[in-house]
Amino acid sequence: MSSKDHLVIFDTTLRDGEQSPGATMTKAEKLRIAKALEKLRVDVIEAGFAIASQGDFEAVKLIAETVRESTICSLARALDKDIDRAAEAIRPAERGRIHTFIATSPIHMQHKLMMTPDEVVEQAVRSVKRAKSHIDDVEFSCEDAGRSELDFLCRIIEAAIDAGATTINIPDTVGYAIPEQFADTVRTLLNRIPNADKAIFSVHCHNDLGLAVANSLAAVTSGARQVECTINGLGERAGNASLEELVMAVRTRQDLFDVETRIDARHIVPASRLVSTITGFPVQPNKAIVGANAFAHESGIHQDGVLKHRETYEIMRAQDVGWHTNSLVLGKHSGRNAFRTRLLELGIQFETETELNEAFTRFKALADLKHEIFDEDLQAIASDTRQKEADGRFALVCMQVNSETGVIPRAQVTLMMDGKEHKMEAEGSGPVDATFTAIESLVDSGCNLQLYSVNAITSGTDAQGEVTVRLERGGRIVNGLGADTDIIIASAKAYIQALNLITAGAHRQHPQGADV
C-alpha cells in the first residue's frame, strides 16, 4: 500500500465553469458531463448552485439521482434559504455535500456585504451549523481568501470547524496570489489554527495572472489535500485551475508530491472534448495535456530524439491521458448497434429512439462525405441532433450561398420561424457575413455578435468544421454551436442555435447575484 496522502479532486466545471460568459449548459448536457467526471473518478462534483434557478436545482437533483461513484455537491451562500435548497437538491445522492461560503476580505466585507467582521463570523458559524443539520459533509469557503487578513482567516476558520465544517476552502477568488506567498498562507493557517487537524484544507485558484495551477500545487506542498478545478480550466474571467494539468503534474512529479489521486487519467482527453463541444469553448492547440499539439513534435531534433527514445522529449505518454481514443471507430458500413454501442462508450445516450435514429441518419450521411469517422465527429453529431430536437423558434430549412472573385457574396436563407417558412437574400463582405445578415433580416433579434470562432473537429480537408457564435443582448450572453463539413452551413447552425437560446429568455443567475 502507498503511504502517500490522498489528494481530493473537486471538480467545479458544472458550477464555476458554467459561469464563463456563454457557457450555460442544459440539464441534459450537465448530466453528460457529470457522467464523464464520474468515469474520470473525480472525488467531488460540484453540480451547481441549487438556489440560482429552478433549472440549476433540477440539474443538481438529477445528477444526485444518477451519479453514484462521486460525492455530489451544491454551492450555497451563507443563507438559510440557500442551504435548505442545496440540501433538498442533493438529498438523493449516495454521498452529498453542501458547500457554503462568505466573503472574508476587507474589500468584500465593506463594499459587497456591508457587514462587520464580527457579523461575518456569526453568519459563517450559523450557516455551517444549518448545513450540518442536513448532512455531515460540509465545506466552508472564505471567499477572496487570497486578499484576506491572516488573523481574521484564522479566527473564522477555527469557528467554522468548531461549528462542524469538515472541509475548509481557501480560494484565490480573483487570481491575486503568487505561488510562494500562497503556499506560505496555507502553511500558516494549518500551523496557527488549533483545530486545523479536524478538517481537510482545500484551495480554489483562479487564473487571472496565469498562476492557478502553480498556486494550487504550491498549496499542496504546504498541506492542502483538496484542489478545486475544472476541465480545460473553464471558469469565470481567465478561468480556474485546470484539472488535467493538476492531476498530471502530481502524477508526473511523484518525487516532489507526497500525494496521489484516484483519477483514471485515460479519460482526460474524452472529458476535455466533451466539455469543449458542449460549451463551445475550443481547446487551444498548445494547451497542456489536452491540446492538439501537446504530444506533437515539429523540430527535427525533437523528432529524432523521440524516435530514438520517447522520454527524451516526452515526460508522459499520450496514451495515459486518453489520446489513444483518437482513432477510427466507425465507417459507412457500420450498423446501428455498433453506432449505439460506441455512443454509450462515449457517455452519450439519447432519451428517445427518434433522436437515436436522427443521429444515425446524420452519421450515415457524414460517412458518405468523409471516410474516417472519429469520436469527435460522433460528439458533434450528438450535440447537433440534440440542438435540432430541442424546442426553438428558429430552424434552418435550406440555404444557398454564392461567392466568386470580384463579386459581392450573396446568401439566400430559408428559416422555419414559429412554424412557417420565411426566405431572405442578403449581401455581405463574405459568405458568412451574407448568411448572418440574411438571418438577421428575418429575425431582427437586436443581438450583438461578440465572437465568431471556427475549429476543425478532426484533421483533414474533409473534417467537420465546428463553429462557435457568441451573441449578446441586454447583458445576456449565449454561445451557439454548429458543426458540418460545410463551414457556411455550420456557421448558420451556430447562429440560429444562439438565437434560439437568447430568445428563449431562460436566464441563469450568477451565484453572487444579490437577487438570487
Count every helix, treating DSSP H or I runs of 4 or more residues as helices: 16
The main sheet orders its strands as 2-3-4-5-6-7-8-9
CATH class of the largest domain: Alpha Beta
Strand content: 15-25%
Which stretches are poorly predicted, pLDDT < 50 over at least 5 residues?
509-516
CATH topology (level 3) name of the largest domain: TIM Barrel
Structure description:
With 516 residues, this protein is an alpha/beta fold. The protein has four domains: 5-279, TIM Barrel, CATH 3.20.20; 295-325, no CATH class; 336-388, no CATH class; 391-504, Double Stranded RNA Binding Domain (2-Layer Sandwich), CATH 3.30.160. Helices cover 40% and strands 21% of the residues. It contains 16 helices and 16 strands. The chain has helices spanning 27-40, 54-66, 80-90, 106-113, 117-134, 150-163, 179-192, 212-221, 243-252, 268-279, 300-308, 336-345, 353-369, 375-389, 431-443, 487-504; strands at residues 5-6, 8-11, 44-48, 71-77, 96-103, 138-143, 167-172, 200-205, 226-229, 259-260, 394-404, 407-417, 420-427, 448-456, 465-473, 476-484. The strands form four sheets. It has an eight-stranded parallel barrel, surrounded by eight helices. Strands 11-12-13 form a three-stranded antiparallel β-sheet. α6 links the parallel β6 and β7 (167-172). α3 (80-90) packs parallel to α5 (117-134), α5 packs parallel to α6 and α7 runs parallel beside α8 (212-221). The longest helix has 18 residues, at 117-134. The radius of gyration is 24 Å and the shape is globular. The protein starts with a strand and ends in a 12-residue tail after the last helix. Residues 509-516 have low confidence and may be disordered.
